[in-house]
């Protein structure tokens, strides 16, 4: 009986440990893609940004604007809008099989209609692995507003 329990435990560990390693690798990969996203967006690199997104991307901006991939990429080209710098203050990734959910807090500086702005918000990005590639399938940002 003790041998059967020991064998069962070893088999479960043999399945669980590689899954944990895979989850950690997925989280690391997606977190690096989050950094690429920030650089691409700040530099208005539409081509790089397009490679990070699934064709079916759903993006909800801080003001509630709902965009698909084409609309988001087009918004990056608007000359009167632009991020100069995006800094992630905190970030966490959680893997669920072929999906990784990233949450965090960001600070963004830039200009809109010729006026400078600074925003601080929370974000959540959903990434999915398909045929070995990680793509963002959904992204949402919410402003953090301090109460008076």
Specify the overall morphology: globular
CATH architecture: Roll
Biggest pleated sheet: 6 strands, mixed
H-E order: HHEEHEEEE
CATH domain topology:
Nuclear Transport Factor 2, Chain: A
Count of alpha and pi helical runs: 3
Task: Say how many strands there are.
Answer: 6
Report on the structure:
By secondary structure, the chain is of the alpha+beta class. Helix content is 38%, strand content 46%. The protein has a six-stranded mixed sheet. A hairpin with a 2-residue loop joins strand 5 (115-130) and strand 6 (133-143). The longest helix has 41 residues, at 2-42. It is globular. It starts with a helix and ends in a 5-residue tail after the last strand.
Overview in brief:
Helix content is 38%, strand content 46%. The protein is built from three helices and six strands; from the N terminus they run H-H-E-E-H-E-E-E-E. Helix 1 packs antiparallel against helix 2 (46-52).
